[in-house]
Amino acid sequence: MRFDEHGIIPLRREETNWEHLRRLDKSRTRPADLNFREATSKFDTVWYGERTNGMEDVAWFRSQYESVMQAIRQRRSA
């Protein structure tokens, strides 16, 4: 949703996470240092594989979100 809000890629609710990632990787407005592949893979492991490390995963995903938002803010101010 944040990528859509910031004009990086439009949100397409019917797409899988990997389809979103492929479009993100091709986006001309994506922050250059943004790597979303690890987050996509880890999400699948937690969500579909039902393997979680509890609060450790929560902290990791929160950190990833903050990194994404920082990259977006830096792109906008550049």
Explained architecture:
With 78 residues, the protein is mainly α. Helices cover 62% and strands 0% of the residues. The chain contains 4 helices and no strands. The two termini are 22 Å apart. The relative contact order is 0.15. The mean pLDDT is 92.
Number of strands: 0
N to C succession of SSEs: HHHH
Q: How large a portion of the residues is in β-strands, by DSSP E?
A: under 5%
By secondary-structure content and strand pairing, the structural class works out as mainly alpha
Largest sheet: none
- What's the helix count? 4
Terminal residue distance: 22 Å
Overall body shape: globular
Q: What gyration radius follows from the Cα positions, in whole Å?
A: 13 Å
Keywords:
78 residues, 62% helix
Helices and strands, with pairings:
Blueprint: H1 2-5, H2 17-26, H3 37-47, H4 55-77
Structure summarized in a few sentences:
By secondary structure, this protein is an all-alpha fold. Helix content is 62%, strand content 0%. The protein has 4 helices and no strands.
